[in-house]
Amino acid sequence: MDRTAQLTTRPAGREIAYDPSAAPPSVQVRAAQVLEANWTGRSTVPSRGLYPHQWSWDSAFIAIGLRHLSPLRAQTELETLLAAQWGDGRIPHIVFNPSVPLDAYFPSPDFWRSSAAGRAAGAPGTVQTSGIVQPPVHALAAWLVHLADPGLSRARGFLRRAHPRLAAWHRYLLGRRDLGGAGLVSVVHPWEQGMDNSPCWDRPLSRVAPAPARSFRRADLDHGTPEDRPTDLDYGRYVRLAADYRDGGYADGRGEFAVEDPAFNALLIASEHALARIAQELGASGREHAARAERLTAALVQRLWDPAAGMFLCRDVRAGEPIPERGVSGLIPLLLPGLPRDLVATLVRTLCGPHFGLGGTTRLVPSYDLLGAAFDAHRYWRGPAWFNTSWLLERGLRLHGERGRADALRRGILHTAGASGFAEYVDPYTARACGTTGFGWTAALALDLLHDRPSGDRNGLTAIKGGDRG
């Protein structure tokens, strides 16, 4: 089907009636119920069925929303994750719950073998984890959680205990993952970037021989339709990359997949800004973190900005070239306070133009180029809209003075979250729920927007720019 025609006709599907006014009053109550149902006592699972363990960047986003219900629980969420940190500084992307059966999720602890295969890298012996990482949202989350109740945070020593771990996490990324030699961090597996199945990974993944289908069983298909999930071929490549990384002792820089990603690096920069504020709260200057954020922003612009695309592009480190695909990742640097004004204006035009359609053909931000050959409105990260990326872009729009667009996106997030049953992701045209429902970060980030009234200028990212109170 012609992509231009698709923009104007919209695919058939179950439409969610859209009221441009504020979200229904029940959204707050139902979002709180999702987080309560997903709470395990020390952390929050993304969903009880599909994702029954603790995920790294999920917990960071969940803590941002959970702080409005219970600052103590939000602190505990992050503390539980940080307690599983490896000796080399990495924060693993999954912390496994030992009470969950091994066959409930794949790859399971017996695949990763963290305590044995990761011994040289300092994997903990008391808890089982994966060996890869996820985007570094954690320092930003920790700072926002502190601001929710500074008195409680100070009384518990929350930031004082978290800061060394967060600093070690950033040192790991900057010291071990600068695989391109230009100052930016590389991911060594699509699961690390968080947007697992993006078409941006197709080219570098094509070099990876997939693991045989008989060598693993996909537990995700027990909870989702195949049309919404990665293909078996892609999954086989994910398994091969992870197994090779494990068998190499989780040593960095050896694998076939190494990509500099705009969103991963933008979130690191945002968290460096947050670490500067945390250091100031603890009585230090924070200048080192602020200077590092400035250097990383300059490197991001120099290395990944593409004027012709009107956005940032991923870079295939092994091939030494940019990846010519427009994914939502390339818009996420909009959340950075130090981005040049002309780049901000161009990113906003791209966000609202035909490739992503925000405010025109789409209500939330699609995960991939609407005009791209690989666009699929339902398949995992190949087109559907996700709530965490839309939340980040709402924050970015508001940070840079695009209040009208930010308000409209906020309304869209809140309405769609509630109307979809807090879906994992949605069709960007129809808002039809895809993946699982009762999803943790969808509920948490809806709560954050409900408590963060635009008229009150309580923009969470203003807190790293200098507008916080506490």
From TrEMBL:
It holds the Pfam family MGH1-like_GH. Signal peptide: none annotated. InterPro entries: 6-hairpin_glycosidase_sf, 6hp_glycosidase-like_sf, Glycoside_hydrolase_63, MGH1-like_GH. The keyword Hydrolase applies. Residues 1-21 are annotated as: Disordered. Gene3D superfamilies: 1.50.10.10. Residues 51-442 form the Mannosylglycerate hydrolase MGH1-like glycoside hydrolase domain. Keywords: Glycosidase, Hydrolase. Belongs to the glycosyl hydrolase 63 family. This is Mannosylglycerate hydrolase MGH1-like glycoside hydrolase domain-containing protein.
